[in-house]
């Protein structure tokens, strides 16, 4: 039997019980919300995960990250924290550093790995050093466009990378601020859209092909890849296509050759290791016409909503509730 948790819950801490009985219910704080552009998605992720954990018998409290969060964590005294705050403020290592300072075990990745993965140019450089193919790109701050002249800068970029390109914010996810540009006018518009979300823009050579998402899990026995999810969307796979039913179709496992799926999974595990990621990650890839996967992005806190790719892969792999249970019982970061 499970109960709804509240901050004035007077149950004793389960930490001692959990240590003596590995199957005992845990006190779990799920952190969601926050003030990023991905707030609503984060809340959906948090409540979805909390629902699964509650049905497993755990004592779960969802906390909307705000000025009361630290006091709430101290009052609740969780056995483990599962941070599900999406976007820069949730995935750049800052929130993880707070949890480390509070001596709280948490699900996910150490702050060092979060920083490597959260900043897209750093992630691309790290995985390229590990032998992973990723499209050529340049990263430019907004200030350069006023100092050097927008038309001149974009002309140089287009000449260097060629067109089409994909423009995306230096940080963040869910397709926010991401645009496809195949001519100079579209490139200018894409830069304006991108700078609404970040002061730095990553401009990346476009690779045409099949979009795959490969999730990786590590519950203490080393990282292993879940089945690849193929994404087919009407138009670009933007925020609306990701979270509003009807715009996208998903195939699990992906409709690619077994050898291609194996290469994509191997690449995702290599990315996970190269970036120093923890319990879970999701790597987004493009498979070109020759069957070669290209690294596009890494997510340290993948979405967990009803239309998110990590839960789809976990469900296809077998028992999703058991996987979540294994994850909270083996948090990657401990005091």
Percentage of residues assigned to helices = 25-40%
Question: Main β-sheet: number of strands, strand sense, barrel status?
Answer: 6 strands, antiparallel
Shape, principal axes of CA atoms: globular
**Corresponding CATH superfamily of the largest domain:** ATP-grasp fold, B domain
Residue fraction in strands: 15-25%
Tally of separate helices: 14
Residue ranges: pLDDT <50 for 5 or more in a row?
1-14
* Pattern of helices and strands: HEHEHEHHHHEHHEEHEEEEHEHEEHH
Number of domains: 3
Mean pLDDT: 89
**Which class best fits the helix and strand makeup?**
alpha+beta
Distance between the termini: 30 Å
Total strands: the figure is: 13
Which architecture name of the largest domain does CATH use? 2-Layer Sandwich
How would you sum up this structure, described in words?
With 335 residues, the chain is an alpha+beta fold. The chain has three domains: 15-108, Rossmann fold (3-Layer(aba) Sandwich), CATH 3.40.50; 116-133 and 208-318, ATP-grasp fold, B domain (D-amino Acid Aminotransferase, Chain A, domain 1, 2-Layer Sandwich), CATH 3.30.470.20; 137-205, ATP-grasp fold, A domain (Dna Ligase, domain 1), CATH 3.30.1490. It is 39% helix and 21% strand. It contains 14 helices and 13 strands. Strands 8, 9, 10, 11, 12 and 13 form a six-stranded antiparallel beta sheet that branches. The chain has a four-stranded antiparallel beta sheet with strand order 4-7-5-6. Strands 2-1-3 form a three-stranded parallel beta sheet, sandwiched between helices. Strand 8 and strand 9 (224-225) form a beta hairpin. Helix 6 (111-118) crosses helix 7 (120-129). The longest helix is centred in the N-terminal third of the chain and has 17 residues, at 39-55. The protein is globular, with a radius of gyration of 20 Å. The two termini are 30 Å apart. Residues 1-14 have low confidence and may be disordered.
């Amino acid at each position: 039997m499970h109960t709804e948790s509240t901050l004035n819950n007077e149950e004793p801490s389960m930490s001692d019980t959990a240590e003596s009985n590995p199957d005992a219910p845990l006190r779990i704080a799920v952190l969601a919300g926050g003030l990023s552009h991905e707030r609503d998605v984060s809340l959906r992720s948090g409540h979805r995960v909390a629902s699964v954990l509650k049905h497993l018998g755990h004592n779960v409290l969802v906390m909307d990250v705000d000025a009361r969060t630290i006091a709430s964590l101290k009052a609740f005294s969780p056995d483990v924290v599962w941070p599900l705050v999406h976007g820069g403020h949730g995935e750049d290592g800052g929130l993880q550093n707070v949890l480390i300072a509070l001596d709280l075990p948490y699900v996910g990745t150490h702050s060092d790995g979060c920083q490597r993965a959260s900043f897209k140019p750093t992630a691309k450089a790290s995985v390229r050093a590990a032998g992973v193919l990723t499209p050529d790109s340049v990263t430019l701050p907004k200030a350069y466009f006023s100092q050097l002249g927008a038309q001149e800068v974009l002309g140089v970029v287009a000449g260097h990378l060629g067109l089409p390109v994909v423009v995306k914010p230096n940080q963040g996810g869910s397709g926010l601020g991401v645009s496809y540009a195949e001519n100079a006018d579209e490139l200018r518009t894409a830069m304006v859209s991108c700078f609404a979300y970040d002061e730095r823009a990553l401009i990346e050579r476009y690779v045409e092909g099949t979009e795959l998402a490969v999730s990786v899990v590590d519950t203490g026995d080393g990282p292993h890849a879940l089945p690849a999810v193929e994404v087919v969307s009407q138009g670009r796979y933007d925020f609306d296509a990701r979270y509003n039913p009807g715009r996208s179709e998903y195939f699990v496992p992906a409709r690619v050759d077994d050898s291609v799926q194996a290469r994509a999974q191997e690449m995702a595990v290599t990315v996970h290791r190269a970036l120093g990621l923890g319990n879970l990650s999701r790597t987004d890839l493009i498979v070109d016409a020759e069957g070669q996967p290209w690294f596009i992005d890494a997510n340290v806190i993948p979405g967990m909503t009803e239309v998110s790719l990590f839960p789809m892969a976990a469900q296809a792999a077998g028992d999703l509730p058991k996987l979540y249970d294994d994850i909270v019982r083996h948090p990657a970061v401990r005091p």
